[in-house]
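Input record (Table S2, row 419):
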Amino acid sequence: MKKKTSNKSTAIALACGIAFGLAGFCMAAPFRTVPWNGHVGAVSFTFDDAYETQFLNLKPLLDAMPDVHVTFFLTGFQDRLTKNAEGFAALANSGNEIGNHTLSHWRLPEETDDELEVEITDFADTIEAALAKYGADVNIVSFATPGCENGENIKKVIQKRHMINRDCGFDGRNKWDVEPDWMSLKAKIWSRTDVTVNEMLNALDTAAFIGTFNNTNPLEPQITEGTWLVVLQHDVSERTIDYLSINPDDIKRLFERAVKNKLWIAPLGTVAAYQRAHFIIENATMDKIDNGYSVKWKIPHERMPKSVPLRIQIDTTRVSSKTTLEQDGKKLTPESDGSYIIEFMSQSLIMRNTGNIPLPKAKPKKAIASYSKFTLYDLRGKKLGATNGFSVPKDYPKGIYIIRAEAEKLPAITKKVAK
Ligand SMILES: [Zn+2]
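Output record (zinc ion complex):
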């Protein structure tokens, strides 16, 4: 952990050297992002394949639960985008996210570069246009691979148009301080055949860090904090013929458990943007301006949500507790817990009343082990007495001597010395 911090400060120092030169004032801004927007953990429910059941059966549930917002990954397979655009536009307008799941839902590794462009890049624009016809202002930032088939070449195409891609697999849990592969985020997959509702409920408890985890097999990943759980769903109906369908009653139970566990229940793109911002803002640099400091940062991807409200705490061990923040010309009001919600997409803010900010302390020099005992000998090895360093005391006659240096933690050395 210590090593990571020192790498971080080196990176900042380098960036500052380039950006401001040695004369400028430059150090990391005294902020800490509040994990998971102030919740102990987060969950993103994602629904693939543009099923009609997702607005027929799911929308009434979502409308009744104002704290639950989810993501729908749409595809043009079987003309579903056109047929269901109105229903998904309504879901978008009630605060849910719309993502891209390709035009044809074909296997991406089998496609040529040109086909990938059409499936991935062009289709994102197609979805936005299709939903705009029904009054939804959709900004696609999230992608999900069909069948979770991904690859380095595919990632490159996704990355050009989306800031996150969801794949499948593993437990679907992500830690706050570990930056995931944004082009291959893992998700826990629901299926009637492989997963029970109880197992999903347990996963929601684990994400909220509810339970006892200290008896975990030491070879398995240890649960030490709340996490971000990503869940993959498909059809929402009682159809038992499709093993990927989930009963409306069961998904309702999962939503209710997530609410009860006080998880942050937000779309994939929302949580991803928040976490990406966390890795950026804590490396933001500040420099002195009249009556304060200007803090600046860059956005990590050009396809971010239009607004990324970010909850931060000011590090009052570094600046005065009277520090105030201004953004876009307005003074920000702190939340009741003292945190601030800033707009990450504004890429800057001003700090005032910080008090004196001490420059980072120079690292104490490492003590170098040194020789402490020096003894003078003549050339025949006769001990003459103590001396100071590799020099012969003034009262000895001219000639060649031997000096032996000793120290507790160093090998003894001898040198011939002339006087
Ligand atoms: Zn799919």
